[in-house]
Amino acid sequence: MAGEPVHVNEFQELARQVLPKMYYDFFAGGAEDQYTLKENIEAFCRITIRPRILVDVSRIDMSTIILGHKTSAPIIVAPTSSHQLAHPEGEVATARGAAACNVIMALSFTSTCTVEEVASSCNTVRFFQTYVYKRRDITELMVRRAENNGFRAIILTADTPRLGRREADIKNKMISPRLRNFEGFISTEVVSDKGSNLEAYAAKTLDPSLSWKDIAWLKSITKLPILIKGVLTGEDATKAIEAGVAGIIVSNHGARQLDYTPATISVLEEVVHAVQGKVPVLLDGGIRRGTDIFKALALGAKAIMIGRPVIYGLAAKGESVVKQVIEMLKNELELTMSLAGCCTVDDITRSHVITEKERFLCRM
Ligand SMILES: Cc1cc2nc3c(=O)[nH]c(=O)nc-3n(C[C@H](O)[C@H](O)[C@H](O)COP(=O)(O)O)c2cc1C
Ligand SMILES: CC(C)CC(=O)C(=O)O
């Protein structure tokens, strides 16, 4: 690559160059035909921006408040597993990179560093993502450990009753990484020579019976606010509100679970309408530009989460490049806001974007 990266996508190639193929494929890949993987990115390209001119933009304030926590920008590091496969310092380096940018980090349940190591590494606001294992005592223990270690919210990932079919992982016989949080409770060693060992581990552990009634159980074991991740329809958003969640995350798990789900940005408004402002709505999937963040905010998201770009930065050079990735997105968002005539995130409104559907209706 010629010169220093100027866009977060360039870190993907750097990651590809340094990582073993098995790990790179695990991080980069999606499920089956990877239709949704492409769509998550391309759907952003079909939304255009309606800028306003002659607004005094000499001061731009990107800060916002998420569940009571002030953050420098509406950007959260998404929960992604196994950071030590990308870099030896793993989630500790990621957390420090997020802390340096004053943004929130969500730690994955299947992290390679422990909850305690990440908590003591820096003082960034942290959310804890949880899966529900068949052994509910393990989930309960992890949620309590997160709460005791100063995590501020629980994200329940609800789109993974089973692992999606990731064909590169099957071909590569993807290993099941060492998850030190669970040492002494459950073995992550699953030896299957048939395909993805990670899939075999997931099949052994994930509880496919998890259902709406279990939100009450989760609420009974923690005082922390609960966000539900994986909502893609207005119907489920309504159910989530009825179940008493504190926030909703529109996500298709970075296109790694059910293929042929729509791009998240294309269903955001449906969810936002169902939620009627009762709780914050976040979005992830395919965010690669400041303009993508602007579009998500215009369509009603309170903040967005970024998954792969952070991992690619981590793989490329650890903490300093995690920081660089987040800063690039922050700088791009700041410039987008300036050029669109929005001084604060609250100034970004629905009338600042045109969706594909609107363009289509105009032509009729
Ligand atoms: C390598 C990888 C691991 C992931 N692990 C988790 C996880 O442990 N828990 C979870 O809720 N989501 C997980 N996700 C999904 C992310 O939280 C997020 O939804 C997705 O990465 C956003 O899309 P993006 O990568 O296009 O930004 C993972 C995604 C990737 C790419
Ligand atoms: C171990 C898996 C359940 C981690 C995950 O969520 C993912 O790889 O997408």
Describe this structure in words.
This protein is 42% helix and 12% strand. It is an alpha/beta fold and 364 residues long. The chain has one domain (10-363): Alpha-Beta Barrel (TIM Barrel). The strands form 3 sheets. Strands 4-5-6-7-8-9-10-11 form an 8-stranded parallel barrel, surrounded by 7 helices. A two-stranded antiparallel sheet has the order 1-12. Strands 2-3 form a two-stranded antiparallel ribbon. The longest helix is centred in the last third of the chain and has 22 residues, at 319-340. It binds flavin mononucleotide and 2-OXO-4-methylpentanoic acid.
| Parts with pLDDT < 50 across at least 5 consecutive residues | none
Write the element-wise H/E pattern from the N-terminal end onward.
HHHEEEEHEHEHEHHHEHEHEHEHHEH
Helix % is: 40-55%
The residue-averaged pLDDT reads 96
User: Which structural class is indicated by helix and strand composition?
Assistant: alpha/beta
- The best one-word shape is globular
Any idea what the radius of gyration is? 20 Å
Ions, cofactors and other ligands present here are: flavin mononucleotide, 2-OXO-4-methylpentanoic acid
Q: Name the CATH class.
A: Alpha Beta
Strand content: 5-15%
Mind summarizing the main beta sheet? Answer: 8 strands, parallel, barrel
Spatial order of the strands forming the largest sheet: 4-5-6-7-8-9-10-11
Summarize the structure.
The chain has 15 helices and twelve strands.
List keywords for this structure.
364 residues; oxidoreductase; 12% strand; 8-stranded parallel beta barrel; TIM Barrel; binds 2-OXO-4-methylpentanoic acid; binds flavin mononucleotide; 15 helices; FMN_HAD; 42% helix; two-stranded antiparallel sheet; alpha/beta
